[in-house]
Specification:
Number of strands: 2
Keywords: Membrane, Transmembrane, Transmembrane helix
Radius of gyration: 20 Å
Distance between the termini: 6 Å
Shape: elongated
Order of helices and strands: EHHHHHHHE
Strand order of the largest sheet: 1-2
Organism: Pedococcus ginsenosidimutans
Strand content: under 5%
Helix content: over 70%
Protein name: DUF4386 family protein
C-alpha cells in the first residue's frame, strides 16, 4: 500500500505523544533504585516501558526533524543527532536494566549495586568496566541534545514553542541531579515527558492539516502528493 509523507508525520507525532505519556507514567510511585528493587516484577515492567519509550522517541523526533529541517539548519541537525544518540543509548541501558539486571541482582548483587549507583549517582565502588563512561556519555547527549533540539525547534516556529522550550529546559535541568538527592530524579523527568507529548500533538496536528490540504488538492486537480510505498 502507499502511505503519504503526511501520514508518516502523523505517526511520528503519535509516537512522540505516547512516549511522553509513558515517560511521565513510569515516574509515578517509582521504586527505590536498589538491588532489592531490581529483582521485582515492577522493575522489569517499568524498564521495559522505558525501553519502548526510547524507541518511540527516536521515531517521534525523526518526524519532527524532517518536518522542520529546512528551518533549523546545521544546529538543528546536530541537535537531532545528539538527542537521538542520547535516546538510543538510553534504549540500550534500559534494555539492560529490564532483562539483565534482575538476573545479576541475584547472582552478583555487589556488581549490580555498583551499576545502579553509577547510573543514578555517577560513581561506583567496584569495577564495572566502561559502564560508568557509557552512563556519563548518555547523560551528556541527553542534556546537550535536548538543549539544541529544543532551541532550534523553538526558533523554527513550526511546532509548539512552549513544548520546544520545555524540552530544552527539562533536559538541561537533569544536570542538577549530580548534586540533588535521588528523590529529585522522578520529578525532573516529568517536564521532558510533557514536552514530548506537546511536540507530538503539535506534529500530528500539523500533518493532519497537510493531509487535509492534499485531499482537497486531489479533489481539485486529480494529482496526489509523493507517497512512500510500504509493503
Amino acid at each position: 500500500m502507499n502511505v503519504s509523507t503526511a501520514r508518516l508525520g502523523q505517526g511520528a507525532g503519535i509516537a512522540s505523544a505516547i512516549a511522553g505519556a509513558i515517560y511521565v507514567a513510569v515516574q509515578v510511585k517509582h521504586p527505590a533504585m536498589t538491588v532489592e528493587s531490581a529483582t521485582t516484577a515492577d522493575w522489569m515492567v517499568r524498564n521495559t516501558a522505558k525501553t519502548v519509550m526510547s524507541a518511540l522517541v527516536l521515531a517521534g523526533i525523526t518526524g519532527m526533524y524532517l518536518r522542520q529541517h529546512a528551518r533549523t539548519g546545521l544546529f538543528g541537525l546536530i541537535g537531532y543527532l545528539t538527542l537521538s544518540a542520547g535516546f538510543l543509548m538510553m534504549f540500550a541501558t534500559t534494555f539492560m536494566a529490564a532483562f539483565a539486571l534482575p538476573t545479576t541482582a541475584r547472582v552478583d548483587p555487589s556488581w549490580t549495586g555498583d551499576v545502579i549507583a553509577a547510573a543514578f549517582k555517577g560513581s561506583a565502588n567496584g569495577d564495572i568496566g566502561a559502564l560508568t563512561t557509557v552512563f556519563a556519555v548518555t547523560g551528556g547527549f541527553y542534556i546537550l541534545g535536548g538543549l539544541l533540539f529544543g532551541v532550534t525547534t523553538f526558533r523554527a516556529g513550526v511546532l509548539n514553542r512552549w513544548a520546544a522550550a520545555l524540552l530544552a529546559v527539562g533536559n538541561v535541568a537533569t544536570a542538577a541531579l549530580a548534586v540533588l538527592p535521588q528523590s529529585f530524579n522522578r520529578p525532573l523527568a516529568v517536564p521532558t515527558g510533557l514536552a514530548l507529548i506537546g511536540l507530538g500533538v503539535s506534529l500530528w496536528n500539523d500533518q493532519r492539516k497537510a493531509t487535509a490540504t492534499n485531499t482537497a488538492a486531489v479533489a481539485a486537480t486529480g494529482h496526489t502528493e509523493p507517497a512512500v510505498s510500504v509493503r
